[in-house]
Amino acid sequence: MTKINKAPWFVALGNKLTVPLLRVGVKLNGTGNYPMYLLTVRGRKSGQLRTVPIVTIERNGRRYLASPFGAVAWVRNLQAAGEATLKRGRRVETVKARELPQREAALVLQEDIKGGNPFASYYQVTAQSSFEEFERVAASHPVFLLQDAM
Question: Given this model, what pLDDT does residue 141 score?
């Protein structure tokens, strides 16, 4: 089972600065293929809509969400809801989110970290780590494949 975590304190501070920028449509990108969006997902207990800024991973024509901080609240909500919206400015899209099995998640994380993920240090693996190490990391860092909700 996935360990329940909380993001470090500085993430909340960064979120307070990032949310208003994303709401007005500022394109915030990490290095390369890591665009930021506002993820809105229904709370698994309250039923209220919850919004957090997230970084998506774009690889080989597919989009993923990976949690560098483990099973934080947005992850548990997304696991329960299975769908969410991504928003930046006026652009809003509804997506289905499918949590990847551990082996598939490990492959995504391995390719992503070898590709220069700016959050790699949170996963505690490097580009030189073995596949078994990536599988261990994938067990506690959920990865979701995002697909258009048609």
Answer: 92
